[in-house]
Amino acid sequence: MFITFEGIDCSGKSTQVELLRAYLVKEKKRVELIREPGGTEISEKIREVLLDKKHFHMMMETEIFLFSASRAQLVREKIRPYLKEGVYVISDRFHDSTTAYQGFGRGIDINIVEHINKLAIGETVPDITFFIDIPVKVAELRKQNKDLDRIEVSDSNFFEKVRNGYLKLAEGNSRFRIIDGTMTIDEIHQRIVNEINMLEKRSTYER
Length: 207
Description:
CATH architecture: 3-Layer(aba) Sandwich
Number of strands: 5
CATH superfamily: P-loop containing nucleotide triphosphate hydrolases
Largest sheet: 5 strands, parallel
Order of helices and strands: EHEHHEHHEHHEH
Mean pLDDT: 96
Strand content: 5-15%
Distance between the termini: 14 Å
Low-confidence stretches: none
Structural class: alpha/beta
Shape: globular
Radius of gyration: 16 Å
Strand order of the largest sheet: 2-3-1-4-5
Helix content: 55-70%
Number of helices: 8
């Protein structure tokens, strides 16, 4: 199963990624956790460039191609081989981040973004995507006293666009599960586990 987590910065998705991995391991599943951008030697180097605050002058076109280059490497080097081996792959962000951040957030034409995403991932689409949704004001509070990267320092107007982009992506997309990120950590985790279990049962029935 290929599971992805999405959300604006400081939504708490990374915490949920770790909790889900621990749960699946306890259930005797083979699990690999990856992050975006990153996950391979090449992709981690791209990550350093993308998130370095010294690169504040980076053009949005450069940004989307770097994110997609990192992803293309990750898909072919790690994700596809893992899935062929029957591994549960959990990714902290995937192509929906590019649509939300570079498309809705930066303003790159969504059709162009979709073409770039298609080139980067091919047919490797998540089985389920959890969007941990929090108001931008809550995210701003959580950022206090945190060392922010180049993306995280963006203003609240940018993140409003990103959040709305995610909500639009989730509309009518059966792959998405919108989770209220203002619930407790345990409540969010239990909701995620329930969704995974339901998807597994459905997949078993269909087979």
